[in-house]
Amino acid sequence: MDIQQLKDTISHLKKEKNAYILAHNYQLPEIQDVADYVADSLGMAKHALSIQNDLIVVCGVYFMAETVSILNPDKRIIIPDTNAGCPLANFAPVEEVRRWRKQYPDYTFVAYVNSSAEVKAEVDICCTSANAIDIVRRVPNNKIVFLPDKNLGRYVQKHVPEKEIVLWPGFCVVHETADLEAILRTKEAHPRALTMAHPECPEEIQEIADGICSTGQMMDFVAKHPETREFIIVTEWGMVYALQKKFPDRLFLEPSHRMECKNMKRITLQKLHDALVEEKFIVKVADDIREKARQSIDKMLA
Ligand code: 13P
Ligand code: SF4
Fold first, then answer.
1. 202-222: per-residue pLDDT in tens?
2. pTM for this entry
3. Closest residue CA from atom 2 of ligand 1
4. Domain total for the chain?
5. Are residues 96 and 167 in the same domain?
6. Which ligand is nearest the CA of 25, by number?
7. In principle, which of 44, 53, 147, 215 could form an S-S bond with 40, CB 3.0–4.6 Å?
8. pLDDT value, residue 204
9. 15 belongs to a structural domain
């Protein structure tokens, strides 16, 4: 089947099975096109609570499907490729988190949602890149362990200087490769452009950005700058498609090399099609872990 035939079949299957397709902003353009809802991690988690359909296909990385499953334990949650993991989440194995908890007994543990369900069950509260500053600020304790992303943690520390934040040494392999020289060259060639960078980018990239935004916040940033015609995007390229689709009259520029999350791009139309036909691969979190992880997610949402 070609792309159009696959898209048509998927939309037919979706109706027939009463399925809902929830996708992240980094998904392939054709996946974003067939999805019912495309958002950042926080948007996906919040939206998951209002979905009525019994079958939800999560087009994103594994922890996103786990989060949807934790929030919807009575629904069937599927992911088209179980190998679509998040290398950042792998930086924090649960045994290591337990070891740190013993080492820092009087600290509040804040976990970025890019972490496994087991880790979410082990910490005090979750956050996403869209609400990390807010969450850390509101936690009553002044001593925080932030995991697993050191760049996001450092960004939070700058905005919440009154707290002591211990950073877990993890990072996103995609954002870590953001090319400072290429961004500076693009800025020089487009002096009126505003630069948006994801907070998973290293500090030197954040320093030259006009906006440090979660992928969802990038949408808001463009909407808040109606006079600006050009934006330099320092994040995974699926976001460039999402922005261009929403704002067709603006220009979104990628600094020379394309930032690609290979795991996000594992989800293809063919795999989505097969997932709908066979209702695979089911994502289910064991009850004891789910209940504890849910508390960390609920605290964040509250
Ligand atoms: P957002 O929550 O900003 O969409 O980020 C998720 C992610 O995986 C970034 O690499
Ligand atoms: Fe994980 Fe980075 Fe891919 Fe986001 S871009 S899913 S943090 S590896």
1. 999 999 999 999 999 999 999
2. 0.97
3. 41
4. 3
5. yes
6. 1
7. 215
8. 98
9. yes
Assigned domain for 300 exists: no
pLDDT in tens, 38-85: 999 989 989 999 999 999 999 999 999 999 999 999 999 999 999 999
The pLDDT tens digits of the residues spanning 85-119 come to 999 999 999 999 999 999 999 999 999 999 999 99
The parent domain of residue 159 ranges over 88-172
* Same-domain pairing of 66 and 116: no
- Supply the CATH number for residue 11's domain: 3.40.50.10800
302 assigned to some structural domain: no
Pocket lined around ligand 2, Cβ cut-off 6 Å: 61, 86-88, 114, 172-174, 200, 236, 261, 263-264
Q: Is residue 199 part of a domain?
A: yes
Give yes or no for residue 257 having a pLDDT over 90: no
Best of 114, 173, 235 for a ligand 1 pocket test (most atoms within 8 Å of beta carbon): 114
d(CA 107, CA 123): 10
